[in-house]
Design goal:
The chain contains 13 helices and nine strands. It has one domain: D-Maltodextrin-Binding Protein, domain 2. Helices cover 46% and strands 19% of the residues. The longest helix is centred in the C-terminal third of the chain and has 35 residues. The protein has 325 residues and is an alpha/beta fold. It comes from Marinobacterium aestuarii. One of its GO terms (biological process) is transmembrane transport.
Length: 325
């Protein structure tokens, strides 16, 4: 057959098209609710690039920040449906599927940041991850990223549990958040988050509690004289791959995603821990009194209440967490 210039051109175009299809990476959708300026997004983008590079382009991960693909409940549903492949989600959301995961959101279960880190690499955490995998139909926890400590802000100094006796404090409307202040003798009020600043300004409540970045972003320090470093909850978010996505990966590719995801979560944790220390000095520079507190005393009055009716974990699981050294 005579090969004309037209046939040759068509053949080259077809070959190029096939080559492009073969070379195109599998699309992976990674979603979360955090802003593009936050470490959660920045290190997710880094992970996306690393996965593409280490897989020689076989995977193209696109990261969707700031609830682009829906609120947190939607992202969790997306994993189940297979419309989203990887998400960051709070412990409380994952605990709706597998209750024991909520243990790490309970007040004062961690002695310090080091204790939390050791938990994330412990046999107990591995067992929780496996329990979640089974309960969720195959979703796989790839890592746990630090979110920060929750602290009290107030208009009087609080350094011991006795200082909270009779204090009117705003907390989120969930039993877990009432445990710590009520253990110290405070009166809790579940005011809507959008109304907290005004409630503090008008004296409807005397105090509130949140991580330092939230205290800054919502300007609560403008209407509160003290930030009391109670550190009563150690917040973190799970990095989860959906079962539908995970099941189509080879063992080699699973190891790739595990490795990069864990490194990404570790970098998020390091950045947020560093920013917390910097924010303490920032608040002091704004004229806010930032107080160290007797955390051991607060732990002592709170821990005995954690295995009551609000617990979604067993006494044995609680004891194992406390035993981690």
């Amino acid at each position: 057959m005579k090969i004309t210039k037209g046939l040759l051109t068509a053949a080259l175009m077809a070959a190029t098209a096939v080559s492009g299809l073969v070379g195109a990476g599998e699309k992976v959708r990674w979603a979360h609710v955090y802003e593009p300026s936050e470490p959660y997004h920045q290190w997710s983008e880094w992970a996306a690039q690393e996965i593409n590079k280490r897989s020689n382009g076989r995977f193209e991960v696109e990261v969707f920040p700031a609830s682009t693909l829906g609120k947190e409940v939607d992202l969790n549903q997306g994993l189940t449906l297979g419309t989203i492949d990887i998400i960051y989600t709070g412990q409380s959301f994952a605990a709706q599927t597998y209750g024991p995961l909520a243990l790490s959101d309970a007040p004062y279960v961690f002695r310090d940041f080091d204790h939390w880190q050791k938990y994330t690499r412990s046999d107990l955490f591995a067992e929780f991850a496996e329990g979640y995998r089974q309960a969720s139909g195959g979703n796989v926890i790839l890592g746990d990223a630090y979110y920060g400590l929750r602290h009290v802000t107030s208009n009087k100094p609080i350094t011991t549990p006795g200082d909270m006796e009779g204090l009117k404090i705003r907390v989120p409307n969930a039993p877990m958040y009432r445990l710590f202040p009520e253990a110290a003798g405070a009166h809790t009020s579940p005011i809507a988050f959008a109304e907290v600043y005004l409630a503090l300004q008008q004296g409807v409540v005397d105090a509130q509690e949140n991580p330092l970045p939230t205290i800054k972003a919502k300007k609560f320090y403008e209407v509160q004289q003290y930030i009391d470093l109670t550190g009563h909850v150690t917040g973190s978010n799970l990095l989860v791959a959906g079962g539908i996505f995970w099941n189509r990966l080879s063992e080699e590719d699973r190891e790739l995603f595990r490795s990069v995801a864990q490194e990404s979560a570790d970098r998020v944790s390091a950045d947020i821990a560093k920013s917390e220390a910097e924010l303490v000095e920032w608040f002091r520079g704004e004229g806010v009194e930032v107080l160290e507190v007797d955390r051991a005393a607060f732990r002592a009055v709170t821990l005995p209440l954690l295995n009551g009716e609000v617990a979604t974990w067993t006494q044995d699981q609680f004891d194992r967490l406390q035993a981690i050294r």
